[in-house]
Design the sequence.
């Protein structure tokens, strides 16, 4: 037997042994369920791990890390698998898949929830709804709890209760050397600081403990106007936001009206602007707050209504379905002047795909700003607006056209950008861009990385290299 065949046999034997020790499962390229196991949100990504370990618990995570290191495999970590970069998959390496880890414990009295790393926000808030509670995380329900929180965690409660990471009480984490640690303000506080915005650079977080908040029935939805009124609608919304209370988080969307019952037939398939959001508080107060937004102009549709927060958590999911080609670009904005709005509307008029959505989030002027920038790894707390261009299409052959349009859009709006970027929206854009995601916290993050992952085992991410 030659050396290569002998090495393959040795590797297969070790993988068989690992599989027998797992509570979860191990999937290899030759297995019938391999294609399903490697499927993630962005269909543009075509990476083929040698081994996928589908963990059932912390023990499986520890064993998987030791296996990957022993065999010199690149290691990736998958939570919800929603991140557009596809870093959840390790090409020719080991993917540690946490998506089976869905344990959830709710303490309604203390308003605390402990969520394992395989949960999505829709799953967490589905159960919290039974207690009239909600977790501060995510604009889209199918987003994973783990990835969103580790990158900061913008969502529908950001102005009332801050980022997901601002509500984190503690976390369980497995480090690169297989140690199991708890991170909190009292235990390993440097690690706790770093995982609140620094991404998955420091270990594999297996569970999160969050503070949650009363939010039974909320006022939520969308007002839609034709593209011909997009400039005026967005400027009205921007001015409206200057006096909006913290209970309200909203955004503006440029998209193509879907064939939905709430959209008149003559508007379906046409470019529109939507102003949508969530008001968490007294519903009568919410009706008064949102009335000017709903009364402005002659909307194509007004679908703002009372609903459970768990429904509000998922109301935007239809705009970002799974298994399509995705290419995203994003920037925090210095502000939203008339020229920025005019530029965005003009550029969207040539959008090549009816599935593409441009989002302008208003996250600031609220609880996110109550936390000092150095108190967590998340730096960009002074950026009220965030631009996100989510280009999406079905046919792989149309990639060049859609990617080129997305880049042109962001280049046209670059003069309004702050220079910073939200790490959860960042694509594969190079080390300088990664540094810009962490601002002046970057050097401190490299020091924490050196302490907990000096060999950069966890590098398949928006990577922070260890300090020299």
Sequence:
């Amino acid at each position: 037997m030659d050396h290569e065949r002998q090495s393959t046999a040795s590797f297969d034997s070790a993988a068989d042994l690992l599989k027998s020790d797992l509570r979860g499962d191990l999937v290899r390229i030759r297995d019938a369920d391999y294609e399903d196991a490697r499927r993630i949100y962005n269909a543009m990504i075509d990476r083929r791990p040698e081994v996928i370990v589908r963990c059932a618990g912390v023990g499986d995570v520890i064993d998987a890390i030791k296996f990957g290191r022993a065999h010199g495999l690149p290691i990736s970590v998958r939570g919800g698998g929603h991140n557009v970069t596809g870093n959840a998959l390790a090409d020719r390496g080991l993917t540690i898949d946490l998506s089976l880890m869905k344990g959830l414990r709710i303490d309604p009295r203390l308003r605390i929830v402990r969520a394992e790393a395989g949960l999505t926000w829709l799953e967490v808030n589905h159960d919290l709804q039974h207690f009239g509670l909600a977790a501060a995380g995510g604009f889209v329900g199918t987003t994973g709890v783990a990835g969103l929180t580790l990158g900061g965690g913008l969502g529908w409660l950001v102005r009332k209760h801050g980022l997901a990471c601002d509500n984190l009480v503690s976390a369980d984490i497995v480090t690169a050397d297989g140690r199991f640690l708890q991170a909190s303000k009292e235990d390993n506080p440097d690690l706790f600081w770093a995982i609140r915005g620094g991404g998955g650079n420091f270990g594999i977080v297996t569970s999160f403990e969050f503070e949650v908040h009363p939010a039974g029935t909320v006022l939520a939805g969308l007002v839609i106007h034709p593209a011909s009124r997009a400039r005026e609608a967005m400027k009205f919304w921007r001015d409206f936001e200057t006096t909006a209370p913290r209970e309200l988080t909203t955004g503006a969307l440029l998209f193509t009206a879907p064939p939905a019952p709430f959209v008149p037939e003559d508007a379906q398939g046409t470019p529109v602007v939507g102003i949508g959001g969530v008001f968490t508080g007294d519903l009568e107060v919410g009706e008064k707050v949102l009335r000017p937004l709903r009364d402005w102009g002659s909307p194509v549709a007004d679908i703002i209504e009372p609903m459970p927060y768990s429904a509000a958590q998922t109301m935007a999911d239809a705009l970002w379905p799974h298994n399509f080609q995705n290419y995203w670009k994003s920037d925090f904005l210095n502000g939203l002047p008339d020229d920025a709005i005019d530029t965005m509307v003009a550029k969207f008029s040539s959008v090549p795909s009816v599935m593409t959505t441009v989002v302008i989030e208003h996250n600031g002027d609220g609880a996110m700003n109550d936390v000092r920038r150095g108190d967590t790894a998340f730096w960009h707390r002074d950026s009220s607006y965030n631009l996100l261009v989510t280009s999406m299409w079905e046919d792989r052959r149309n990639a060049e056209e859609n990617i080129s349009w997305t880049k042109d859009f962001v280049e046209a709006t670059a003069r309004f950008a702050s220079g910073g970027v939200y790490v959860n929206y960042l694509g594969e854009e190079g080390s300088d861009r990664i540094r810009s995601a962490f601002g002046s916290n970057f050097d401190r993050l490299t020091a924490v990385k050196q302490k907990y992952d000096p060999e950069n085992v966890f590098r398949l991410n928006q990577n922070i290299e260890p300090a020299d």
Observations:
- The longest strand covers residues 217-226.
- Residues 1-6 have pLDDT under 50 and may be disordered.
